[in-house]
Amino acid sequence: MANVTLQNVRKTYAGGNETIKGVSLTVENREFVVFVGPSGCGKSTLLRMIAGLEDITSGDLLIDGVRANEQQPAERGLAMVFQSYALYPHMTVEDNMGFALKLASVAKDERHSKVMDAARILQLEPWLKHKPGQLSGGQRQRVAIGRAIVRNPKVFLFDEPLSNLDAALRGQMRVELTSLHRKLGATTIYVTHDQIEAMTMADKIVVLRAGNVEQVGAPLELYHRPANLFVAGFIGAPKMNLLEARVLQVAADSVTVSALGQTFVIPVRPDGVTAGDGVTLGIRPEHLLHVSEGTLGGVVTLSERLGSLTILHVKSDDGTMLVVQTAGSDTTDVGAHVRLALPTDSAHLFRADGDALPHVAPRPLGPSHSGGGSDIPAAQTEHFHA
Fold it and tell me: Do you know which Pfam families this protein is assigned to (predicted)?
């Protein structure tokens, strides 16, 4: 396997349209890295530049330390799995998986051995004599992955490979791809717009927006320590509550803000903010606590019961809409008056330019506060508000 390094890589099309704007990044050997972001952010373009399917306008691409900008796709030692399966309908599964080896003049016995090894890994042995039209979507995607495996590439590249599958099958394939990565120990770069795929599969996530890298880190690092408003709003489902706030006072280890008609002391460093500044207060739905002792009031306008959890949409007393994640056993219905508590040690503050203010104490990357509990630990109650 290999590592991949991008050094200030840019892509500009005719007319001066720059879609990749100076990306620098290292994918370590055996790492599973996911490029994620909204449609049009440049994630697929960046993947195609690594694959050699798009020219690099400027900057350097290094594969195991060797500059690969001018290498042809076949010379880079990579294998790519596309959104469309791109299988030959007249060929059997075995022939589809071994076709690239046949073109490379690999001996028939060796070709057969490699295909059988991949088929065992992907549980495709019963289907080797079938044609793609006789397979399910998930099986066809396995064939496309098998076609990449037999080439024993340095790096696997996946371009939204699960987007054509239904929700249940996507969940199954996420598990299978993660397990496959562990078995092969393969360096993998995976593109998706689905943050659930990114959070559940990646060793490292690269969040892209408009051709720029917004943040790079482990899934829980991005979730608990978003670098800016964009990452905070993009990572996490339901989305983080982002609320207008005003700075009242700053100290070395806290910023006091007004929001939701109340005052909160947030344990962050006041880098670049002063009294009177407008800021954004962020709190994830599972951190807003639905408890009788809560100081925030509101009315439930929608209750989404998802079995293991319940999502409450609450119109607060000052008219702000809040999303609250509670336990699946929560029976609160539409129209109910509720009390909420906002633990400030779980809150985030973002400057007017969108950058997050750093927390005084490192944010934990383990399990978060449990939403929907009826008892509030004493250690939390002192952080609700000031």
Answer: ABC_tran, TOBE_2
